[in-house]
Amino acid sequence: MFSDDAREWTLHVNAAVDGGVICTVKALPSDTVISVRQKVVAKLGYVSRFRLLAGCCILTGGTTLEAAGLCDNCSLQLIWLPSDVLATASTDTTAAFWSMESGENMQLFQGHDDQVMWLCFSTDGQLLATASTDRTARIWCADSGECLATLLGHKGPVFSVAFSPDCRSVATCSHDKQIRIWTVPTGHCIDTLVGHSKQVFSVSWSRDGRTLASAADDATIRLWDHTTRSCSKVICGHTSAVYSTSISNDSRRLVSASEVKLSRQP
């Protein structure tokens, strides 16, 4: 027997416009709204922007279902949002969503104290992560712009951030030569990967989530085993800083981009 606190609730998700049934999901009272959003996406089978409401109240990502005043067998309303958006990171300390049709600013993400160097979406489209020279990364609810977690621990500017394919982890890399792995969406640091001898510019995951690739100023690329959190391979060949790297969808190839130093002509 489960206690009342451990018993799953059934939540009915209906279209706000006509009341049509979209799906039902199971969740614990202690689950957050963002986890419910992720379950809705999994049920739908595709990624699309939407907003969840309970009555007239918008449900924000970090709130638990119990704190939001929900109950077992309650009904939620779903409003579809425009999906043709462009996300940008800026030296003005913000990230933003823009309408690709009108160019209008649709959402502003404010909170960093210095320029935003990188941003990325989670694979389910519900979260946005940003990396900043203020030595932090942040995880945001992509719908409301609410900051769910500030990732503190790096001792230098954070250059890149990447969600794991299962959306449970996020990796960051920094001027401090470290790569850190954090839980999503709580933002707890669960590991620090050390091996590069200079600042690390880029991190990217394999599609199966088993491998993390990092590119650094030491002219190398490192492959890290996500299970053991150890370096499985060091790739050498570049003669200068490697700024970016990406693993192919079949996890069999890797592409990298490096600085090229041209020799001076006599």
UniProtKB/TrEMBL annotation:
<keyword id="KW-0853">WD repeat</keyword>
<dbReference type="InterPro" id="IPR036322">
    <property type="entry name" value="WD40_repeat_dom_sf"/>
</dbReference>
<dbReference type="InterPro" id="IPR001680">
    <property type="entry name" value="WD40_rpt"/>
</dbReference>
<keyword id="KW-0677">Repeat</keyword>
<dbReference type="InterPro" id="IPR015943">
    <property type="entry name" value="WD40/YVTN_repeat-like_dom_sf"/>
</dbReference>
<feature type="repeat" description="WD">
    <location>
        <begin position="151"/>
        <end position="192"/>
    </location>
</feature>
<protein>
    <submittedName>
        <fullName>Putative WD repeat-containing protein</fullName>
    </submittedName>
</protein>
<dbReference type="InterPro" id="IPR029071">
    <property type="entry name" value="Ubiquitin-like_domsf"/>
</dbReference>
<feature type="repeat" description="WD">
    <location>
        <begin position="109"/>
        <end position="150"/>
    </location>
</feature>
<dbReference type="InterPro" id="IPR020472">
    <property type="entry name" value="WD40_PAC1"/>
</dbReference>
<dbReference type="Pfam" id="PF00400">
    <property type="entry name" value="WD40"/>
</dbReference>
<feature type="repeat" description="WD">
    <location>
        <begin position="193"/>
        <end position="234"/>
    </location>
</feature>
